[in-house]
Specification:
- There is one protein chain.
- The protein is an alpha+beta fold.
- The protein has one domain.
- The protein is built from three helices and three strands.
- Strands 1-3-2 form a three-stranded mixed sheet.
- A hairpin with a 5-residue loop joins strand 2 and strand 3.
- The longest helix is centred in the first third of the chain and has 16 residues.
- The chain is elongated.
- 5% of the residues are buried.
Length: 88
């Protein structure tokens, strides 16, 4: 028997789209502080492992599917973008 490890990135993809929308809607008269790039980079080290689902396939293999999503840093960044308070 062998196993395949699969990563479900659908939640990450939705979160990235949400982040892109917030960046597009960010006040045009506001400038992104220099710290903004660091906040984006920090997201990639704050990925949570969500639900894990295992399935036995017809060929006898076991598929282990792990859902991935951004953690609390993502939520804080969205709030900062929405309120225009990126300094903190």
């Amino acid at each position: 028997m062998h196993a395949r490890l699969l990563f479900d990135t659908s939640i990450l993809e939705r979160q990235i789209e949400e982040l892109k929308d917030c960046i597009r809607n960010f006040s045009a008269d506001s400038a992104f502080p220099g710290e903004f790039a660091n906040k984006i980079e920090r997201l990639f080290s704050d990925i949570d492992l969500g639900e894990t689902v295992s399935t036995v396939c017809a060929d006898g293999a076991v598929d282990v599917r792990q859902r991935l999503r951004f953690g609390a840093d993502f939520e804080r960044l969205l709030i900062a973008l929405r309120t225009g308070e990126l300094d903190g």
